[in-house]
Amino acid sequence: MTECNTAIETSLITIRGARQNNLKNVNVDIQPGTLTVITGPSGSGKSSLAFDTLYAEGQRRYAETFSPYARQFLERSDRPKVDKIDGVPPAIAINQSGTVRTSRSTVGTMTELDDHLKLLFAHEAHLFCPDCGRAVSEMAPGDMWNDLKTFMKTYPDARVYVLFPVFEPKEGNVEQLRADLSRQGFTHIEDEKKTKDGTTLWVAADRFKMEKATDERGTEAFEKAGNNGLGPEEGLILVRIIPADADQVVERRYAKGLVCPDCGTTFKAPKAAMFSFNSPVGACPECRGFGRVMGLDLKLAIPDPDKPVKIGIKLFTGQAGKEAVKDLTEAALHRKPHFNILKSWNQLTEDERLWLLNGDRKSGGTWYGIYGFWNWLESKNYKMHVRVLLSRFRSYTTCHACGGARLKADAMNWRVGSRAAADAAVTGTDGKNTYKRFVGPSLLRIASQIDQTLPGLTLHDMMLLPVSRLKAFIDALDAEVKDEAGRLILSEIRRRLVYLMDVGLGYLTLDRQSRTLSGGEVQRVNLTTALGTNLVDTLFVLDEPSIGLHPRDMDRVNAIMENLKNAGNTLVVVEHDPQVMLSADRIIDMGPQAGSRGGEIVFDGTPAELKKGTTVTGQYLSGKLTSDVCVDAHLTPDSKTKWLTVKNAHAHNLKHLTARIPVGMMTTVTGVSGSGKSTLVADTIVPWLMRHCGQPVTEETLVDTIEGADAVTSVNFVDQTEIGRTSRSSPALYIGAFEDIRKLFANTVTARDRGYDASWFSFNYGPGRCPTCEGAGVERVEMQFLSDVVIECADCHGTRYRDETLEVKFKFPDEEGPGRNIADVLAMTAEDAVTWFGSHTAGKTVARKLQPLVDVGLGYLTLGQSVSSLSGGEAQRLKLAGILGARDNGKPCLFVFDEPTTGLHFSDIAKLIPCLRRLTDAGHTVLIVEHNLDVIAASDWVIDLGPEGGIEGGTVVTEGTPANLMHAGKGYTAQALNAYRKALADPESRMKGWFTEAFPAIESQQKTPGRSLQSVWREARKGDLGIFGAREHNLKGIDVVFPKRKLTAVTGVSGSGKSTLAFGIAFAEGQRRYLESLNAYARSMIQPPARADFDRIVGISPTVAIEQRTSRGSGKSTVATMTEILHYLRLIYLKLGVQHCPRCGIPVTNRTVEETTAQIMKDLRNRTITFTAPVVQARKGIYTELAKDAVKAGIPYLYVDDKWVRTDEFPALDRYKDHTICWPVGTTAVEPGNEKEVRRLIRAAVEKGAGTLRVFFGTQSALTPEGIPSGQKRSAKSGDKIYSTERTCPQCGASFPALDPRLFSYNHRMGWCEYCEGQGTDSGRYISLNPQEDEAELKAKNVCPYCKGTRLNRIARNVFFHNFSIGDVSLMSVDDCLTAFRSIHLEGREKLIGEDAFKEIISRLEFLQSVGLGYLSLNRGAPTLSGGESQRIRLASQLGSNLQGVCYVLDEPTIGLHPRDNRRLIQSLTELKNKGNTVLVVEHDEDTIRAADHIVDIGPGAGSRGGELLCEGTLDELMAEKRSVTGEMLRHPTPHTGRARRPVTKVTPKLEIKGAYLHNLKKIDVSVPLGRLVVLTGISGSGKSTLAHEVIAATVGGTLASLRGDSLGGPVGCESFTGMDYLDRLLEVDQTPIGKTPRSCPATYVEFSNRIRDIFAATNEAQARGYTASRFSFNTEVGRCPVCDGQGQIRAEMNFLPDVVMECEACHGMRFDDETLAVKWHGKSIGDVLQLSVDEAIELFGTQTTIVKPLQLMQDVGLGYLKLGQPSNTLSGGEAQRIKLVTELAKAKTPKDIARCVKATRTLYILDEPTVGLHMADVARLINVLHRLVDAGNTVLVVEHNLDVIAEADCIIDLGPEGGPQGGSVVALGDAQKVAKSGTATGVILREFLKDHKPSAADKKKLDAAAKESFEAAERFDASSAEKAKITAEKRQHAYERAEEARKLFSAREREEERQKPLSTADFLRGNLD
């Protein structure tokens, strides 16, 4: 897609008051869909604005839409310091990557292609024997037979013997073995082979002529042979073939398992880890996966091969070397023939060289050889001087074991693809095999076959292919791989390869080490992240994409960014490169300077306007200023110039290159990215010259020589490595000036008097630094899931030093005033320091060292500023300043700089060039690898490499002066220099497209054949979301376009494919593409959705799903946990809470060791106690390392989980359980004379336990003299106590351990209330904790009397923050909590630590308040929430993210909402759309459909009858569509009279509930008429679910259970009840899912599968085979398919890719094995029956009433299309709901049953919103079913908001008038007409509804007829109720009598003991309080 998204209006991205880092209240607006460049001097605040503010907020907000589980794996950014940001889209960052130094990182690992390739090999590779080359596979007997049949086509008349081996040891009886085989039927022994170990008999499993053998016989022969073999060759099968017309016998071998039949070699099954060199499973053990080994470099050991051996071996140095020379001389004299040590290395023969290297000790000699001496040195490498010596002679060489493949030999045996596919990849354009197949050491025996016959490629072959050729191979594989998993992997590989080609990296190989890549190549690899997402409406923030890129390559990157922008994305680029700036739509120039002098916007406009501006950037862009301020200093080589001449460099892609570098001048090596610049300079010139100059180097150089090398004496290489991340490094320290400054302070009078030396003034060590922060000046506060907070040290106030150190003042002798302390000096800027020190003689040295900081433009930095806080450009210049500040020894050096302009602005480069000139002026040579055109133009000499990158580079295109290059115009560099000059001269020039003829079009933008609809979409629907060829589930290849920034309703009958389209495709693809921008680890944990089945999707933006939640959570799930408010509250209380003593109510304080000693001496006097340190407190893990440490420390025991455990026999602890471990420090008696020892042990325990110690006394832990515990059980006089030096009550002396985040969690035993275990409710035992406490009230509310509903223990409840405990906050309502938190004003330390968490809490509270849930308490349990409340909480958490450009996909958001609240929801969705988002709503609700801007209707039927696009357009277009059921229902809605079919009369029996008080119910009286359809409705949160489920259902259920003797019964949540005598049974049908695995299906859930199995078991064939009914169950092992375990499908685990579900290849989805499927009934197998639809099954089982009845019910509720065996996890919400209803209906009696005098069971059905997921037509069917239930003598109570259901009710109970505290009352009662006349919210809407749904005359006639039948049924029910009540009352009386007898068995004493049982012992964290 290349069209711009300008047709759609978007709101601005607005930033107000940005204060991040050095930003000074910046305000800026960014237009979406544009390319904005942020530029300015280095350190001016560009990254702070782009990344720390804009990107951080966009990424953070989108991350908030993920689940809490998923977010823990996302790199979620912190809230930036900004007043407001609006309209920000989801953001993706493309940062600069730090230089990769590990050899384990390759192009393959960086792009994750390695991960995908190892998956490809694990799934698709074929095994070939490395000894004979034969294909090896795990063949079943049938496969072996088929292979033999193919082989036997050349011997059609041959006789075949299928043989297997049986081995008998030599001590065995062979004859007895023969007899045993004969008894088993094996009478023919073909061969008998004897060996020293025994005898092998080759037994014939079968013999036959090939032409007569059937498949059954052949397969059986192989099966027998495989199963009956015995001995070493067990599993081997030998097929002996005797041709009819030939004497020669032919043999063919087979084997069970992965065994080569010819060689007998056994192989391991492939696993992904086998093909990874970063896994110990796959890595070569010799080189550990590096592909290289480090060893002795003979070129270093013998540097001059022309010198005599006696003096030429440089390795023989030092005393040990002299000894080696002596040993060599002696050994040479005794060698035969004689060895002349005066010969040079070049003069030695091959034998003599081998003797010199390896020695002759193996043959009895005395010479150990050079390698022997080297090995001896390596055994001494624990000595520093030996390690230094070894480093001088080491280098890397290719691993001899793997040949550089990095993998074990096993991995090299596996190959992927055909011979043709491999040939296409390795063949070059000239038709020759340009790329040789890899033949490693393990494959030498089949080398010829690899070259000639073996198919495919190994993994290392693919690693060695260039990306472009590898893509050709993958394209060829695509036609060969057929399974879904393989095709998914191939698509991912191909996509990544295409993006690498898009950015011009098609020449790279995947095996190329990342550290060898140029900066430009690394940058472009990172850029593939942006391309790989294929998203629109996304914010991409790029950090200097031009780094390392040649202008030619930057032109390509500009084109890629232009494509991203045109696709509808917003790009913000931090950049200094003029090529990018002039290509931008807009430039924001930051400044005016750097650091504290920057942080402002000095320009905001177009590039053309910037050129006319007065800012520094504008003047450079317009050419008014130039970076080359040393034009007059340019040098030109002449005849006197000395040269460094590189001869025949051939590393990597260098093509035997020769280049010249003028000595004493500034030379720049440039060229397109990948042309070989870094290879030439960093890998060739630098290591060769360093070795020449005697500097240590490990790299081998591939160059003949460098002539003129004597012109340099040393090499200084400045690369792009980071200078440090620690806050302890500072500019003064890095530049080397700090030591001199410290010496000045040490020489002061005060320092000398106090004995302070220079170390005293160091903040990194020594006694002078602040002991609290250890010289850091700051305190780092860990904030759990938020970023750590760094605050100023409270003791030293950021100065880093002790007060005594700061008292030392320094001033120069001629200076007045008190002087400056060391902190004052570190606070000075470099400019001020140079001025101050330079003005005095004593400070000249310091000033000289600091001057380079000023020279490179860093004069504004303070001397003590943390290096980790510097920007990239500042860090780069600091490194240069370090070079300039080094003392010059006067000898000519070579200074090599790798892209020194990285991160530098024009003005910074203008300061850089004079610094480089200073080096050449001093006689040094400067060599620069650079693409910056200013630096190239300022150079004396330029070497341009190319002409292209990779294999097409590596040659010198041209070399000369910059002027000569520009004049000749040869090469891309010359073109760029000329283009740059032209662009600066032309105010309108945009400097892009200068090199478009140099490379092909972007690969991913190549045109592909498409549909006509796509072309229409491109022209007419610019930027919209288009899905083409959707075939997921039941979708039939439909094409759909969703308009952007509109509200679209996706509707259709239940099961038609709506959710598949919206969620399975649109949402899944949007989220999957965003997750592709994350790292592999995050994706492996989050498991992105699998790619759905569709042709193409365009215009997709990041998506957010708001799905139905059928589960209401556990009792410990609360409003606070659902919204994550509790997470942030826990963080606030952990970091800022003040701990109080629960007993005394006063804050705890610190206590000294002496005070702790006194307390213990008092508490435990005359007791022997063991002092321990709690080292692990309730943490998961195995802790074997801790036990090993204890053994080393001589600790025989550890106290683990309440018992002593030996450390030398430490058990394997459960990794997933919490453990508490204490480390004993000693045992002693607490006596007055032993106080010194007690104090010592206390001090040791406190130090080990971080301020806490635990003591054990009595038999619990006292140790015998032998160190063995004398007992492990507690006695009355034994136990333990906790003491703390940091958290102790000053009044009672109670001690407490350190606060832990789990202490504030009621989901962990460390924090939950010991009585209710975090439930907050009473569990049956009451304890009077407070005499004034109203225990009766607590009982009535079912509140835990111990924690009063806070759920937490005493310690957690006594930590206070601004006078509130976390328990107090949890009991507040949302409104009250918001008011309380808004009244709290954080200041100082509290603000620094808690501000972010505080904002998160307030924002979440505001979201809840905005959706009308301010009345909810934070502690309200999730199960007690109504459906509407739960739905609104989810909406609040998702819709509150305030994003722009997102596609929100909602699944029936009206669920649980009253029609009035539904209208508010529609208003919220409209506001969401108006913010610039796209909203897709899967919905059946009529109001939502009518309010939508666009409607998509899927149908016409459900399941296989649906999946078609019926309508796409407006409401009028939908209503005009004749095939649409939705359109029909909108045209002719279901008619309603509003009158009750079964009026409630005086004789109607009723269920009377008196005084219902639970939750918000206000002691209401409710009368539920029985034998009627009753609807319970009302405003969301008014108390409907509470009344229906927690009062009526609980009361009725308990009372009915009492009749069976299972319960005592009684009212629940109400004062009393009557009417139970009329009921027999209670059934609740809720919204929980019916199954999450393929093992559950409609046939099993509705429970008619048992009858089907009985039918199959009764067939003659089944009985003949002895099959029982269990044989026909796919959930039992016998009979089901053994491959898929009866699931019909196989899930292939794909690690970081989504798992792939494929049809089982063995049973083809039928679930059963072949034998079971062979049993037929009416011509169908059990598998065929499960494939039938309900409609088809009714015809098949027409005479089986037990089966037909539930099937007919399924048909009645509109599920006739479902297959009987369809997995439950594939059902829609509406389908699942109806199946549950059918399950209950099947158990009910029908009116016909009653007419036949069949006894009917009177059941109360309570249905919780049964219309969830149902289409309007399905609701009409549901209503009919409900009426049938009631007519059968049942009572149906429905909690519902659907107006169609409400209008059909015989009685409506309307609760309200509002939700929450304002609800809980009955506001209306009666039929629909009566309620419609009321003024309630339901009545008002119902009145409008009945008016719109008034029946026609024909409809009225039908309704009256149905009402008459129902009326008569109701009369029969009422008439029979009195007799029913009488019978039930008698049963109840008998039940009560039995219960009373049972109660008498318990005496009053026993009941009292039960009541007085003590609480369970809490965790030791409760300390002394227990």
What features would you describe in this structure?
With 1970 residues, the chain is α/β, with parallel strands linked by helices. It is 36% helix and 16% strand. It contains 70 helices and 59 strands. The chain has a 6-stranded mixed beta sheet with strand order 5-16-17-3-18-19, with helices on both faces. The longest helix is centred in the last third of the chain and has 48 residues, at 1897-1944. It starts with 12 loop residues before the first strand and ends in a 15-residue tail after the last helix.
Strand order of the largest sheet: 5-16-17-3-18-19
* Computed Rg: 42 Å
Percent of residues in beta strands? Answer: 15-25%
Please summarize the sheet with the most strands.
6 strands, mixed
Strand tally is: 59
Euclidean distance between termini CA atoms: 70 Å
Shape: globular
Indicate the low-confidence ranges by residue numbers.
Answer: 1-8, 996-1001, 1007-1020, 1261-1276, 1324-1340, 1794-1798, 1954-1970
Helix and strand content put the structural class at alpha/beta
The helix tally amounts to 70
Mean pLDDT: 83
Work out the helicity level. 25-40%
Topology diagram in text:
Blueprint: E1 13-18, E2 26-30, E3 35-39, H1 46-63, H2 68-71, E4 84-86, E5 91-94, H3 107-110, H4 113-124, E6 126-128, E7 135-136, H5 141-151, E8 159-169, H6 174-183, E9 189-194, E10 198-209, H7 215-228, E11 236-242, E12 250-255, E13 292-296, H8 298-301, H9 309-312, H10 318-334, H11 350-358, H12 369-378, H13 384-393, E14 394-398, E15 414-415, H14 419-426, H15 447-452, H16 459-464, H17 467-478, H18 484-502, H19 519-533, E16 539-543, H20 551-566, E17 570-574, H21 578-581, E18 586-591, E19 600-605, H22 607-612, H23 616-621, E20 643-649, E21 657-662, E22 666-671, H24 677-692, E23 705-707, E24 715-718, H25 731-735, H26 738-746, H27 749-754, E25 778-781, E26 789-792, H28 803-806, H29 822-826, H30 830-838, H31 844-855, H32 872-885, E27 894-898, H33 906-921, E28 925-929, H34 933-938, E29 941-946, E30 955-960, H35 962-968, H36 972-985, H37 1012-1020, E31 1025-1030, E32 1038-1042, E33 1047-1052, H38 1058-1075, H39 1080-1086, E34 1096-1098, E35 1103-1106, H40 1119-1122, H41 1125-1136, E36 1138-1139, H42 1153-1163, E37 1168-1180, H43 1184-1192, ...
